[in-house]
Specification:
By secondary structure, the chain is of the alpha+beta class. The chain has 4 helices and 6 strands, in the order H-H-E-E-E-H-E-E-E-H. A 6-stranded antiparallel sheet has the order 3-2-1-6-5-4, with helices on both faces.
């Protein structure tokens, strides 16, 4: 499924601000993981100058990423969404899984501070397009309200 309108409505429908952050993020990963051609979808949460593994769907992942390292750490440091068509071409890419070929990382920003990053990997090259970036950034604005 690649219907972002449905996914965005599902996310809005499952969020419960009375629940712990981890519970909400866990369900959000399950919804996003419905997108076609993904092999990993999850969050890394900011603590100091590091990202720590949060709720995710997929294989075992890296547990700690320093600010500025890899795609996630770079998105954290620069406060921008990063789309990588071929992870092998991204200098300093951290390969948690050899199956991942492309990646998108969207920072979750509240009050000009990155609180988390949404990391999504695909087993195919050039998976993420401008429409994915636009819609995932819209989803990030919904998620920021949880922080």
């Amino acid at each position: 499924m690649n219907d972002y309108k449905v996914i965005i409505e599902q996310i809005k429908g499952i969020i419960d601000k009375d629940l712990p952050l981890i519970s909400n993020l866990s369900n959000i990963t399950a919804v996003i993981n419905q997108l076609d051609n993904l092999n990993w979808c999850g969050f890394y949460l900011v603590e100091g100058d590091h990202l720590y593994l949060g709720p995710f769907q997929g294989d075992v992942a890296c547990t700690v990423i320093a600010k500025g390292k890899g795609v996630c750490g770079t998105a954290f440091e620069n406060k921008v969404t990063i789309v990588v068509d071929d992870v092998n071409q991204f200098k300093g890419h951290i390969a948690c899984s050899s199956l991942s070929k492309s990646e998108i990382v969207v920072p979750i920003i509240k009050n000009n501070q990155v609180k988390a990053v949404l990391d999504i990997d695909s087993p195919i090259y050039h998976r993420f397009k401008e429409i994915d970036k636009k819609n995932l950034e819209e989803i990030s604005l919904i998620i920021e309200e949880l922080f």
